[in-house]
Amino acid sequence: MRSYLDFEKPVAELEAKADELRPLASETDSPAIRDEIAKLEQRAQTQLAELYRNLTPWQKTLVARHPMRPHFKDYVEALVEDFTPLAGDRKFSEDQAIVAGFGRFRGRSVCVLGQEKGNDTETRIRHNFGMAMPEGYRKAVRLMELAERFGLPVISFVDTAGAYPGIEAEERGQAEAIARSTEACLGLGTPNVALVIGEGGSGGAVALASTNSVLMLEHSIYTVASPEASASILWRDSGRAQDAATNMKITAQDLLRFGIVDGIVPEPVGGAHRAPEAAVQAAGEAVAVALSVFEGLSAEDVRERRAAKFLAIGRKI
Description:
The chain is of the alpha/beta class. It has 14 helices and 8 strands.
């Protein structure tokens, strides 16, 4: 079942017309009807490609949030063999907003971390929509420390609107947990790569994305706060979210230009949600290339390169 965003209405209309004609084409076996369907499909594809070549930052935000976009579990199932998740932070409890474990990526043992949003009501509630509690970040730290002990690279898949902002999270030290996770990323003696697959929101994203290489899918976003929250802060009007999205420079293209991220992974025409398998495979290729750059480097070299990357941000703007 297709799901269309508001700006995709012209495409939706063309594809709906083609769908209406398909039963008739089957019944009558008419070459003329089949030709008309082919023309409609071609027009829809052309329209879709044109739309996605010229997306505004707000439209990219909507694409990044699309519910049918591949999530963490889709990437792990396709790219990581023998994935074994580990639970709990050994301090308070288990938080399922962040899933973390070990497996093999292209024959190499790795540690894999990421936010999982869920894909239906039950799983979204279970994973708290990808918004982690402090124990989620402490679990990530625990696994990163294990990865370093055994000399394993760390791969992070980032997809969160931000860390959970509730009172109970603050009571249990949300800010400290995010800071510790960020510190663990920056201090790793093994290579780490992060890929923003949807939303990279606030400290909730930075806590897993302070890595040697930060990649973004073409239509993902990476931002200090959501456009709605930023509009509320700047103009006291969340209705100006589109203005905030434009002015904050949250797209992969803007962030690559500013040197904040290191690469963009192209998405299929119409976004990752239209061809999830192709999007996931392209992501796997990009992560493999990013990891290969650090093969054979000492722990000190890995740390120095990571530090230099982050210290260079903003110096050439």
